User: What shape does this take?
Amino acid sequence: MNNGLWVLLALLAIIAIGFALMMRRLMRQSREAERNIDHSKLRHIEDEQ
Assistant: This one.
């Protein structure tokens, strides 16, 4: 393989790892935010059918 292809593969790997870490962080924040919601103050919405 030539050097350009190795650079491209390394760049794609770095982008994929960064994306995975960012999604993991966002999912963790989402779970924490869900725990902090006071569900007793929310009213239930019925689906109209």
About this structure: The two ends are 60 Å apart (CA to CA). The helical segments are 3-35.
